[in-house]
Amino acid sequence: MAAADPAAPGAPLVVTGRALSQGLERALTRLGEQKGHINELNVFPVPDGDTGTNMHLTLEAAWREVSQLPPDAPVSAVTKAAAHGSLMGARGNSGVILSQVLRGWSVSLREQDSLDPEGLAEALAEGSRVAYLAVKRPVEGTMLSVARDAARAARQALEKGADLPQLVEAVIAESWAAVERSRDQMEVLRDAGVVDAGGFGLAVILTAIGERVTGQAPERSGRARDEGAEISPGRSGVRVLGAAAAVAPEGGFGYCTEFALIGAELDPIEIRSRLGDDAEDDSALVVGEPGLLHVHLHTKEPWDLLVRAAQLGKIERLKVEDMTSQHQDAQARGRSPDQTLATRPLGVVAVAQGEGFRELLLGLGAAWVVEGGQGNNPSTEQLLQGVEDAGAEAVLLLPNNDNLVLGAEQAAELCVREAMVVPSHNLPQGIAALLAFDPGAPLQVNRHRMERAMEGVHAIEVTRAVRDSQLGDQKVVEGALIGLLDGRLVSSGSEVEPVVLSALGELPRGSVEVVTLYRGADVETEASERLEQAIRERFTELEVERHDGGQPLYQFIISAE
Amino acid sequence: MTVRIVTDSTCDLPESRRQAAGVVTVPLRLHFGDREFQDRVDMDDRQFLERLSSAKQPPRTSQPPPGDFERAYRRLLADPADEVVSIHIAAALSGTVGSATVAAQAVDPHRIHVVDSRTVSLGTGFQVLAAVELADQGRSAQEIVEALSSMSHRTGIICLLDTLRFLQLGGRIGRVQAILGSALSIKPLISLGEDGAVIPIGRVRSRKVGMLRLSELLVEHRPLTRCGVLYVGDPVDAEHLLRDARGTFPGMDILLQHASPVIGAHCGPGTVAYCYLESRS
Predict the structure, then answer these.
(1) Which stretch of DSSP H or E encloses residue B230?
(2) What is the pLDDT of residues A240-269, one digit of tens each?
């Protein structure tokens, strides 16, 4: 059965919504087969087998929405469903970037019933463009480069007059070539002799969709082999999705009105005009994508606004606040605590794994702890739920993991509450940030103070290598203990103490005063005591503290500050 | 007519300065076990630190008995034209103001004016210095009291403790309780509220970060008229803070003082602090 349906005899082949939907299903299957392999593509042999799993879970969320569509749904509906599903289900940085690629496709194809070579080339270009926007500091040799190079190949093929199968073949070939190039584009990858895991995952997806829509399995040129690596975009974040809020004066007191608008088949600019004058006011915020929008504006007549909004889509997470009485409420609240008012003005939501860490974070004043971390990244939706569960009007999010920073940024953008991310890359940073939290200070001030507090906090993580690798001229065998200092592999060995001591030795003398050991779930108390003793003996000037973190995978997480 | 200034041992002004200004100082009391000491009279900083390190029980402190104030007031008021302004540690922290008031009632409530400084240590000390200056200018006791009442909200202390233990043992924990409840050992930054009660202003894990924070916080109170550095125990970190403050406020006469044993008993060794008097805006 040919998957690509001829639009008319002799005319160029086009891709129907059904074929694209089947392509996505095939991509999900392929990614499922490959995810273990992609998980192994890590620059460092740490057990953060996330990239493959995260991309798979993200694509699965996309597919769940696509599979609800009628079989004859047009291409526009398929890509929209995929974009929406992946946006809510995005996990990890790689998942977020993938969701943005799908979002770009959906924006580009919003009026297309089917896909011709021109439409395909444009969708790939838009997917690449939107994904680049999501990352503040894009890096060569990642999923982004694969998306961009694939789009460029499509454009070039189109200019040469390629038909659909030829164009698809060019895209697939170029995406794998880009994956291959990633090995040389980043120093960490070159040193480790691997390719980028996220790029590899995207190439798998493009290949599977391409094979399905053209009904053939094109030759893979330069198929990347068993090595690769995920490059985390580091301290990057997601920009505002959709229309940006413009700047203009705000007219007097009224009602602060916020809601999510589900299912409105219009872009944010159109929504603004349909919602009326208040929404067209430049201080109003209408962001997101058609079908899932976040509206935040001030109006004197929220009832009229809501009537108009209800005609456009389903209103969820509605919050209307009388700004005039808000002020008085805030003053009254201090004097007579209202038991029915469960909300606090400002709260911290932290992500952590391990009962010890959970209790510690709550003890330090976190309003809510979302379960998750290394190897178990919560989805954007789960982070959003955490923000809701915190019972706070405004929220500061501590992702506490490299791979959750983008997802947290996305959750902060999508949530109806005022939310900001303090980009903590590990739990020691998160705890330092939380210590600086002052519930009485404004959100912005807190974010600034918390980011400042994270500076100068070093994290040492001790875990077991999940595959053989190289540390300088030293070979690290699978199963060996390894020490990572601020995410960088610095030591290895068969015993915990030398691995930790040598990692601590990497820190400039005098820069550290307090070392805190957080014992993992599988470590005996005695081992923790021995480590404390060893550190005290070697570094006599340090204060050493021991706690139970209860985290999986990591024997020890150590903060040095 | 002369206005005489009385204070207590917790004002932490150098003895030479107090003597030169003719300020009379009434000592608070310190108890190690059954033994009672007069703050800074029969126990100095070094003796205090030695005793503290070997004490089985934490020391306790108490206000001076009213009799001490009575004696001082009677001596100062021998001339019927003279008046007394008696400036003391915040009533929220100590019963000293109470003792002084009882004594004033007994001696001559019209000529003795007891002032709650609403702060502690050099914060009180700066009010004492201001009162001395005003008295030298020939101001009446009533005028001095009015000037001080507008000054108390401009004086402050920001303090880094090495541990919350001493504050806790001394029962002066106040709202700082809120930052307990954590398994982690943290170094609290504290200050005093409007009424002089202890309030938390931050928490850090290392001294170095805490000291940086203190210096940052001090800058927020600019412009300053007076500034001082206070410590308990080792002076090294306090000297560091002194250098920071000199950099920020060049030319200012900045005091570096060991806290009186009574203050030390509540803050514990390792405490460092800035005391300041903000300029009138």
Answers:
(1) strand B224-231
(2) 222 222 222 233 346 767 777 877 777 766
Chain A residues closer than 8 Å to B193 by CB? none
Backbone angles phi and psi of B156, in degrees to 5: -160, 170
List the structure tokens of A436.
Answer: 């600086």
> Average pLDDT, whole number, for chain B?
91
Query: Vertex A339, ends A334 and A345: CA angle to 5°?
Result: 50
The reply to whether B80 touches chain A by the CB within 8 Å rule is no
How far is residue B1's CA from residue B82's CA, in Å, rounded to a whole number?
Answer: 5
The most confident of the ranges A125-134, A191-200, B259-268 is: B259-268
Q: Does B18 touch chain A (CB under 8 A)?
A: no
pLDDT digits (tens, 9 = 90+) for A285-337: 666 666 776 676 777 777 788 888 888 888 876 767 665 544 333 333 332 22
Q: What are the structure tokens assigned to A12, written together? A: 């160029």
Tokens 């993580």 correspond to A461
Give CA–CA dist B24/B27, Å, rounded: 10
Contact A293, A88 (CB under 8 A): no
In whole angstroms, what separates CA A397 from the centre of its chain?
Answer: 13
Minimal C-alpha gap between B186 and chain A (Å): 9
**Cβ separation of A513 and B204 shorter than 8 Å?**
no
CB A552, CB A371: distance < 8 Å: no
Q: Is the pTM of this model over 0.80?
A: no
| Tokens coding A354 | 């391990």
Which of A363, A453, A559 lies at the smallest CB-CB distance from B182? A363
Q: C-alpha A522: how far from its chain's center?
A: 29
Residues 87-126 of B with CB under 8 A from A: none
Is residue A153 a contact partner of residue A179, using CB atoms and an 8 Å limit?
A: no
CB A134 within 8 A of CB A100: yes
State which residue of chain A sits closest to B189, comparing Cα positions. A436
**A522-to-A88, A546, A556 alpha-carbon distances in Å:** 33, 15, 10
The per-residue DSSP string of A43-79 comes to: SS--S---HHHHHHHHHHHHHHHHTTS-TT--HHHHH
List the single best residue of A344, A451, A514 to mutate versus B (max B Cβ within 10 A).
A514
The answer to whether A427 and A400 are in contact (CB under 8 A) is: yes
